Amino acid sequence: MRKLFPILMTLTAMISAAMGQSPSAAPDLACIVTRMEQAQSDNRAHFRPYVVTRDYKLYGSDGGRATAEVIADISFQPPNQKQYQIKQSSGSGSGEKVVRRVLDKETEMARLAGQFDLNRTNYDFELLRTEELAGAPVYVLELHPKRGDRNLLKGEAYVDAATYRIRRIVGRPAKSPSWLIKDLQLTLTFSEAKGMWMQTGSEAVANVRFVGKHTFVSRDLSVQTAEVVAENLPARSSAPRRLRPRTASSLGAGVLR
């Protein structure tokens, strides 16, 4: 048996070489993480002032028609300043309250830029597999937060195998954001807009005590760049315009440009 093992290893190496493969061709986790960290740093350096118009929809426990819809403009001024304005609101008034809380949190997170990145300061990583996402190969990394922080996620990150940019994150907060929420599943999607790589969509599915399951979905409708965003936006405190409920199809034309 002792003699058989090295023979089998030699045969495996010979077969791999004959097929044009190398036994050491498997991706290296440390290399993937290093390049992913560098891609995040490079991307932050390329950010320019922009205004994104974003659509939010809130669905109740029946999962049918949206109970509320809110459209907001979010402006970003590098390196870490965000402001928002609610442009339109329809349906349940609770939808706008939820969106304001989410955007308040987003502006706070912007001021802490880099502190919750997917890096070795905040996470331990494990390479689970390589697969395809929308026709392109990605590395799927398991995320293990190093501390119980509600801004860190326990789950999986999908990293582009060519650019090492993060394309999708699926997971749960390392710490529950509220005792009212029994379970919160997040899906964050990222793509390119105006030469910048940013989060362009999200879905949050929560089991809320006493009221059941709720789903909160956001997607970017458009992104416009500007040299000085703040000068082009109205004050944040201006009141939104109330609308009659609109169907999902009326928003279908909104796309990233």
Question: Can you walk through the features of this model?
Answer:
Helices cover 20% and strands 43% of the residues. It is built from 3 helices and 11 strands. The chain has helices spanning 4-18, 29-45, 93-111; strands at 50-59, 68-77, 81-91, 123-133, 136-145, 153-160, 166-173, 181-193, 196-208, 212-225, 241-242. It has an 11-stranded mixed beta sheet, covered by helices on one side.
Write the layout of secondary structure elements.
Elements: H1 4-18, H2 29-45, E1 50-59, E2 68-77, E3 81-91, H3 93-111, E4 123-133, E5 136-145, E6 153-160, E7 166-173, E8 181-193, E9 196-208, E10 212-225, E11 241-242
Parallel strand pairs: 3-11
Antiparallel strand pairs: 1-2, 1-10, 2-3, 4-5, 5-6, 6-7, 7-8, 8-9, 9-10
Q: Biggest sheet, open or closed, and with what strands and sense?
A: 11 strands, mixed
- Tell the overall outline: globular
> How many β-strand stretches?
11
Based on secondary structure, the structural category is alpha+beta
Query: What number is the mean pLDDT?
Result: 81
The number of distinct structural domains comes to 1
The tally of helices reads 3
Q: Residue ranges: pLDDT <50 for 5 or more in a row?
A: 1-24, 236-257
Query: What's the architecture in CATH terms?
Result: Clam
> Main sheet: which strands, in order across?
4-5-6-7-8-9-10-1-2-3-11
Round the Cα radius of gyration to an integer and report it: 22 Å
Order of helices and strands: HHEEEHEEEEEEEE
Q: Would you give the CATH topology?
A: outer membrane lipoprotein receptor (LolB), chain A
Distance between the termini: 64 Å
Helix content: 10-25%
CATH class: Mainly Beta
Strand content: 35-45%
